[in-house]
Amino acid sequence: MGSMVLLTVQTAERLGLDYDITIVDDGSAEHTRELLEQIDKDYERVSIHTHAQNRGYGGALRSGFAAATREWIFYTDGDAQYDVRELERLLEHAGPDVDLVQGYKITRHDPLHRKIIGRIYHYLVKTAFGLKLRDVDCDFRLIRRSVFDSVTLESNSGVICAEMMMKIQRGGFRIVEVPVHHYERAHGKSQFFNFRRIARVVWQLGGLWIRHVVMGGSPKKEQSNGSLRGVEKPVQGPRVGDAEGH
Length: 246
Known about the structure:
Blueprint lengths: L1 H13 L6 E6 L3 H13 L3 E6 L4 H12 L4 E5 L10 H5 L8 E6 L6 H18 L10 E5 L15 H11 L3 E7 L14 H20 L4 H4 L4 E4 L16
């Protein structure tokens, strides 16, 4: 994580950004807290937002979004599967006529069972909520902060990504999709791919679908307010060893 913070700072400085960095510590172990305390001392523009107890992936994202102060919010996960230097590609498309620059994986580098489950999940979410995105669960996003003036997120689990993209699309916000590289997990273990968590996600997705599609109206009637553009050309990118949670 320390190297990812350094790389993030170096990238922001190289790009001449007015920035701050928020790391959400979602009830981590003691040795991680010690590392974060040292990072907090070493980097003036880094702040640590700590949860005394684990609130889940969605809870961590909601805290990070709430702590944001700049016009744009960039976030990615802390499992080293994306290269933070490709933030530059997202920024190239963050113009006045865009509200969200959404990454999509050029090639998914995961074990076969995760690829299969991920593809099924992606198909179900796109179909259930009428999403037009290439990649619903690519957590490499640049979002205009004002989006959250009208989009209120409620989920505390990984279902928050489906909820967020559904509400952003329904809200008529303008989306551009950009290809980014995806790498094998350098450290840590996914908390999603076990039967109990998958069953819980299916249950939560069902609840989200009932509240916002069955009770809230067909997504097909609302999604026409938004716009989506794709950037087709893949790029060659360097490998990053560590990643940071925002």
